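Before relying on records like the one below, remember that each one covers exactly one chain. Contacts with other chains, cofactors or solvent are not represented anywhere in the record.
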Amino acid sequence: MNDRWNHRDYWPLMLVFCLGCQTGLASPTQPNILLIMADDLGIGDVSSYGNDTLRTPNIDRLAREGVRLTQHLAAASLCTPSRAAFLTGRYPIRSGMASESEARVLRWTAASGGLPPNETTFAKILQQRGYATGLVGKWHLGVSCETRDDHCHHPLRHGFDYFYGMPLTLMLECGGQHSELGQAVRAENWFYTCVLTLLVLLLALGKLAHSLPIPWKAIGGLAVLLLVFFLSWYSSYGFVRHWNCMLMRNHEVREQSMALERTTSLLLREALSFIERNKQRPFLLFLSLLQVHTPLPTTNHFLGRSRHGLYGDNVEEMDWMVGQVLETLDKEGLTNDTLVYFASDHGGFLEVHIEDTPLGGWNGIYKGGKGMGGWEGGIRVPGIFQWPGVLPAGRVIDKPTSLMDVFPTVVHLGGGQVPQDRMVDGQDLMPLLQGDMPHSGHEFLFHYCGSRMHAARWYQREGGRLWKAHFETPTFFPEGSVGCHTEDGLCPCHNGVVRHDPPLLFELSTDPSEAKPLSPALEPSFHSVVSRIKEAMWEHRKTLTPVPQQLSGPGNVWNPWLQPCCGTFPFCGCQESPCPHAEL
């Protein structure tokens, strides 16, 4: 018997080994997952996406060491519906999170609308698979339904073990440390808040007093005068700020109203603490940043450092926060075991300003911005995945992908199953990210503005052409501007739009700026392309089922009995400890 090793007997094993080297490592199951989402960040605000005047070295590191998506798309151009789609992998219209009115986001912490309890988030599935699940930062998907403590929409009802952050979103009324912003907002909103509050309560009291005897009416009149005095004072004190601008830890209000000058440090401390507490087990951390939403709370260390005023300072502080989290992963030896994802919930806000000072972002070469339906500037966002040893470094993918794709991607990596009892619109991105699949899983993507479909795109794989048809577009005001300078600063979805028949057709592969609409005379395949897109829209609409509307009507008004409060309502108020300590 010859004991000498004969390489010919082992060539099948050698072949398998070599093929494994060429294709890269298989994706291990149950990695740590860190999802970082900026708020209102324009795709043109990041160095790795073409900005040469803002410094974002830590986000650039992710792009350099990971995979950068150049056609990454939000399912809506506003916060609430976009985030609902991100968490569920479903178009927001499927969950009732696409408004039938112009109130397209939740406006009150004490509104009854929100992400329905029967929706399944990736956090809920990974929680069932043994993950520690945490959300630090912005939620903006509702709190309670019928009583102050039912918390039917709360993050803890949607699969998160731990929550620390804002149940709603930053508003200009939350501003305090930047006197110019704070004074301007208070001047604009004082009269509105007084009148609105007094009108609602006086109508209610008037209806009650109508049925009372004469003596009680006199007493009631005096009570009304006292109430008017109180409400005038309280409204001028800023009830919007006290009732909306708060921090919660799990179900408890911890700070009301927020001291924005230290919110960044509080949120960062919570994120780092969550990682350190859960480093011995698989964890999912959704770090939902408050940057770069107005009023742009920025610590003194970063004020005046950028070349783009307060907005640029806030972007650079955001990048620093990302760097602190990445540094913690490195320090704890978790980098190679963690999938990191960075994105924005939608495009930059073009219209926001105080007097002549712009406070919004830059969407690069793309037309439009936040709230503008289907224009690229409102929905095309940065999208970066990093996972050393699993995803190739420096890879760039120019295929249509969606924020909704994070749902099936994360679920599969965590060892879970995508729900089979509902339509899931996202696609697992791992084959595309690793280079095992040459094309995007999306042939068609539909771009809603509220509940109306403004546009749709078709990725024609044969030939690689990318078509986009606009059926409705906002009317920019004033004429010739790049946005809609309306009372709330956002372009409308339903009224004040232009309807196009035939639609505006663009070939994004050659005209990504949507500057030159095609015509039948210029494009021989115009009618066949439009027909194919309309057919896909019809097939998509057949998959929609009626659901309760969460953002329209009574679901999006302030309800005093739902108001989270620290202390005695309506005198809500408390401050977070400067050194918060949290247990999972």
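The mean pLDDT is 87.
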